[in-house]
Amino acid sequence: MTQVGDYIVIPISELQPGIYILQLYIDNKVYHYLWEKL
Fold first, then answer.
1. Tens-of-pLDDT digits for all 38 residues of the chain?
2. Total domain count for the chain?
3. Which of 27, 29, 32, 36 is deepest in the core (most CB within 10 A)?
4. Is this prediction's pTM over 0.70?
């Protein structure tokens, strides 16, 4: 488990390293979107 900034990345599978990276990217976009709305 690796902490990246305010995010905690939990790898789903060693065979699919791109999945949680993509999820992290999406969560980051949503986070910034909500932050702009505040």
1. 455 555 555 555 555 656 666 677 777 787 777 777 76
2. 1
3. 27
4. no
